[in-house]
Design brief:
globular; five-stranded antiparallel beta sheet; mainly beta
Length: 79
C-alpha cells in the first residue's frame, strides 16, 4: 500500500496496545512478525513505532494497519 500523504510504500503490521511504565495503555505499531513481550525498547528495536495515543480506540487488542516511516503516518482499517 502506498502512503496517501507522501506516496511512498507503507509497511504492513498491526496496531496493538501495551502497558507503559506508568501503567497507562499506549498504542504502538509493530511489524507483522513481532513476537514476545511488548516494551518500548523491543517495539522500537523491531522497527515498530510507539505513538502518543493513550486511550483505547479499538474493541480488540490488535488491528491490521500500515505505517509510513518516512512521513510518520499510520493507516488503520476500520472494517
Amino acid at each position: 500500500m502506498n502512503c496517501p500523504v507522501c506516496g511512498k510504500e507503507m509497511e504492513q503490521g498491526t496496531c496493538r496496545f501495551y502497558h507503559g511504565r506508568a501503567g497507562d495503555r499506549r498504542l504502538a505499531w509493530v511489524p507483522l512478525d513481532f513476537k514476545g513481550i511488548m516494551t518500548k525498547g523491543r517495539i522500537e528495536q523491531s522497527g515498530g513505532v510507539v505513538t502518543p495515543v493513550h486511550s483505547t480506540i479499538f474493541d480488540n487488542e490488535e488491528q491490521i494497519s500500515y505505517c509510513c516511516k518516512d512521513c510518520g503516518k499510520i493507516v488503520i482499517d476500520v472494517r
